[in-house]
Amino acid sequence: MREIDIINYLLDLNPQLKASYDLYHNIRHCLKTKDTKQLNTIIYGSNKQVFDYMKTSIKTIKKYMEYIENALYYGYTNGILEGINNKIKVIKRISFGYRSFYHLKNRILITQNLATLKTA
């Protein structure tokens, strides 16, 4: 049996599972294509047949819909900055504290490829 056949077989066994599965994939498609109108239609449509945990997720999406639309409309994110902050925290945690801020700063710059080690 093919994987798709197995998935369809399992979804046919439980209508609640099928409704939740379809809702999940429709939301993913809207986010991937940045289609906010379709997302609103899906979220505010009738979702009575889905599992309770999906209803909770829909409630959360409704609560933050304005922010989700902004995130889809504008291409700005602070993900890169958060990654850099995480690296700095990891360096601090691993080092057990540098005696000198100069050494900590150099370690951060080296790991970000903003400085190089001097070789003799």
Short description:
The chain is built from 7 helices and no strands. By secondary structure, it is mainly alpha-helical. It has 2 domains: 3-73, no CATH class; 79-111, no CATH class.
Rg, rounded, reads: 23 Å
- Which structural class fits the helix and strand makeup? mainly alpha
Taken in chain order, the helices and strands follow as HHHHHHH
Give the overall shape, derived from the CA principal axes.
elongated
What does the average pLDDT come to? Answer: 90
- How far apart lie the N and C ends? 64 Å
What portion of residues is helical? over 70%
- Please indicate the count of domains: 2
Number of strands: 0
| Major sheet attributes | none
* Assembly status: single chain
Determine the strand fraction and express it as a percent band. under 5%
How many helical elements? 7
Question: Segments where pLDDT lies below 50 for 5+ residues?
Answer: none
Describe this structure in words.
By secondary structure, the protein is mainly α. It has two domains: 3-73, no CATH class; 79-111, no CATH class. Helix content is 73%, strand content 0%. It contains seven helices and no strands. The chain is elongated. The model has no long low-confidence stretch (mean pLDDT 90).
Record the SSE blueprint.
Layout: H1 3-13, H2 15-33, H3 36-44, H4 52-63, H5 65-73, H6 79-95, H7 101-111
Please name the defining characteristics of this protein.
mainly alpha, 120 residues
